[in-house]
Amino acid sequence: MFLLQNIQFVHPYFLFLLLLIPLVGIFYWYKQRNQQITIKLSSLKALETSTSWRGKLREGLPVLRALAFILLVIALARPQRMLKEEQIKAEGIDIAMVIDLSSSMLAKDFDPDRLEVSKLVAAEFVSKRRYDRVGLIVFAGEAFTQCPLTTDHQILQSFLANLQCGILEDGTAIGMGLAAAVNRLKDSEIATKVVILLTDGVNNSGYIKPITAAEIAKSYGIKVYTIGIGTTGSALAPTSRLPGGRYKFSLVPVEIDESLLQEIAEMTGGKYFRAVSSQSLQEIYNEIDELEKTEIEVSVMKRYSEEFHRFAAFAFFLLTLELLLRYTLLRSIP
After folding, report:
1. CA distance 175 to 212
2. What are 40-90's pLDDT values in tens digits?
3. Which of 7, 199, 289, 310 shows a CA-CA span of 20 to 30 A to 325?
4. Contact 145, 180 (CB under 8 A)
């Protein structure tokens, strides 16, 4: 026989006939019981070894007939094996995610803070970009590549989950972060290259000016989407670091260089967004996801092979075997 893999039934309602098996079994047992003849003997010693191997085998003949019935019912249900072939032609895009790790990303105007929300939303965005290569660049007072461009989104999400403030010299080097992303994308042969830059402050560190980095991005055909994260007004944010490594929080004004971020986006053909809540940040990433959809051509071909003849043939074999045994080797005397 063969394994029932990728099998579907064209007429599955015939399988309800299998419910007749226990009813027929009960009827057979009741009939056999009523056909037994009682004979009174003075001693059973002479009949102790009277049951032959033929008698034992004959008792199993109804099992062959039941198995044949089961196979015929399955054949009537018309089992088919589905053979599915899928061909996907896709050219993904290269995306460099640039995330600010300055201490201000620990501000409490997002729950629990700006960084944790940014990590969660970015990870969800990555999970949607199935055919894209995505990389991760982080910056504060300096910048470095946390994860190069990769299609292994699981390891990328692991890097995102482990991001924390304090691993870099504090500050906000927007130009350095953007330049690091451009350096990763510039040699890519993919037609569409995108940077998503998220920050909550004003450029105050680094030796590369943000506009200079934007001009380089433009020369390589790299589109930059910029996101300013933070509420309007004031927010509870770190103002100093205590000897034990903990931060001291105070209410400080939220300052984001929106004009700079907007200029970078317009210069490179991207778009500037302002995220003032977790929901708005989610909507921003959803919009970017829609703006940068990957064109995918998928062709699916389904083929089916009929399998009912296997069941019918084996059922016929069992019925033939049962009849041959019943009227030849295991024949009973009336």
Report:
1. 7
2. 555 555 555 555 656 566 666 777 778 888 888 888 888 887 766 666 666
3. 310
4. yes
